Amino acid sequence: MNTETVVIDEVSSKEAKEIFKRAGRIIKQGGLVAFPTETVYGLGGDALNKEASAKIYAAKGRPSDNPLIVHIADIDNLYKITTQVSDEALKLAQAFWPGPLTMIFPKGEAVPYATTGGLDTVAVRMPDNETALAFIREAGGYIAAPSANLSGRPSPTTAAHVAEDMNGRIDMIIDSGACRIGLESTIVDLTGDMPMILRPGYISLKMLSEVVGEVLIDPAIIGPMDENAHPKAPGMKYRHYAPKGLLTIVSGKDDKVKEYISRCIEEGHKLNKRIGVIADSESQEAYRAADYCADAGKADDEIEISSRLYGLLRGCDENNIDLIYSEEFDTPQLGMAIMNRLMKAAGHTVVKV
Ligand code: TXA
Ligand code: MG
Fold it and tell me: At what angle do helices 159-166 and 302-318 cross, to 10 degrees?
């Protein structure tokens, strides 16, 4: 299959409208189109067409028990794909949509089980990206989209990342630049007695609680995975976001961390290993001996850190890095999401110094 990449500069231009029409036609015919959102690039297909969902799983190489998020552009469409929208859900939608929040609802009949991985619930989100919204509307209003990476690879935050993984596997890539946030949406389950976060993201526990009161966190997403932990979002059980090199997170006081990682660089070089380090801008100088020093951005700019993270993990691969050491990024709003993704990429390997 030939994958065409198209660029959107100005969403309301005549050229863009033509592109959205063509992309919409591809979706209505059961094809696949990758598109930008404010979190990561999505791999879109018609959410109400089970053959399209099957194609998404095939293109990603994703286990089919891992359900897809349905993306909508208009709140009215929520009612067609769910059987119940609680007051809490409506409040959260009003507060955070369009935006990086996915909510889980009881599934309506219109949504095939192929899209929900066999579940009776459906995940829905309205992305905060003009290109995404225009594309979804033109494509009929319901786009099933996982992140547009091959299963197990870091999620794509640029169209170039998408092309790396998806060239020849999908019909079209819509490029409208880098994703603003760079980490997948917060997922909240609203089908239980109390709202529960299944995946941390930009919309934090605090932000959610301010709207709906007490919110729980799925305990399985905090600690290391073992056979007793059953995360409620099926996708959270897979080792994900992983670069090819072995990643270790180094935790502790700043100077101790620098000392430890510097020693690892030295020891690694003796063994002819290529060493990568992920550290904030302020720390770059300390790791000059590394083969690839990934600059995560300024320590107090959490959006910079979140938006760069996946690109840096891919950068480690491009630089053929064998061993990667990362500092911790304990920032107030996004820290939980950043560390959740890093921990998964590291298979929960943490060294405390
Ligand atoms: O930011 C995002 O959410 C991005 C962009 C493209 O919108 N999408 C994304 O999709 O991250 P994906 O497929 O990579 O991750 C979806 C996650 C998986 O962990 C999946 O198990 C969970 O959502 N999920 C989907 N439907 C669910 C459901 N009905 N119940 C529980 N978890 C669900
Ligand atoms: Mg994903």
Answer: 40
